């Protein structure tokens, strides 16, 4: 049977042009009955597609029609079926964020790349960090902190001087953003099973927001982060250009 392909595209004109050309050539199956979903855009749209299709069995294959494309394959209109049939698959578990705000409301979100806490005012944030119920850092003064998955370790985590993690590593990166005290704290590598809790200290004077893959929650007081093994995202890459190879290559650029 011919491969059933569903297409999704960002609103960018270049992505919409590609969508029209590919649908005309390969058809466009409904996502819930497709063998594979092809996402056209940048990494932001790829993350959006992974989140919106996480309940569907079809893997997602990205083609870069955006500005950043670490999770994307090169765009080409020709030989798409052959590329999809030969593609390598990576499996990624997201992080789950549970954020409690100053008004007592609780917010849940999933993040494929990272969950970050960032100062929302002129003064540095002050965070208490607990891991698996054990206090690890009583006060971190910083612009923020984040917990990143291996898949997201080359994104904001890497910009904040966090480590790049191999895709198969059962670890998470806990990284400070512009740490002031302890000034030389370099972050930590934690087991994938760890539960990280951030408590915001002096929250009225030092407000903090939380962000999970661009879903932002203002005025957080506590944020709990843990891996969510019940959800598995299936991402396809061209042979020799898979996520593991990209993570290794990035370290030698």
From TrEMBL:
UniProt-recorded Gene Ontology molecular function terms: ATP binding; metal ion binding; NAD binding; NAD+ kinase activity
Record-level GO BP terms: NAD+ metabolic process; NADP+ biosynthetic process
Main location (coarse class): cytoplasm
SUPFAM superfamilies: NAD kinase/diacylglycerol kinase-like
Catalytic activity: NAD(+) + ATP = ADP + NADP(+) + H(+)
Enzyme class: transferase
EC code(s) of this entry: 2.7.1.23
Catalytic residues in the record: 43
Subcellular localization, as worded in the UniProt entry: Cytoplasm
One Pfam family this sequence matches: NAD_kinase
Residues bound to NAD(+): 43-44, 48, 113-114, 143, 151, 154-159, 178
Signal peptide start-end: 1-20
GO cellular component assignments: cytoplasm
Cofactor: a divalent metal cation
Keywords attached to this entry: ATP-binding, Cytoplasm, Kinase, NAD, NADP, Nucleotide-binding, Signal, Transferase
Role: Involved in the regulation of the intracellular balance of NAD and NADP, and is a key enzyme in the biosynthesis of NADP. Catalyzes specifically the phosphorylation on 2'-hydroxyl of the adenosine moiety of NAD to yield NADP.
UniProt similarity note: Belongs to the NAD kinase family.
Protein name stated in the entry: NAD kinase
Source species of the chain: Pseudosulfitobacter pseudonitzschiae
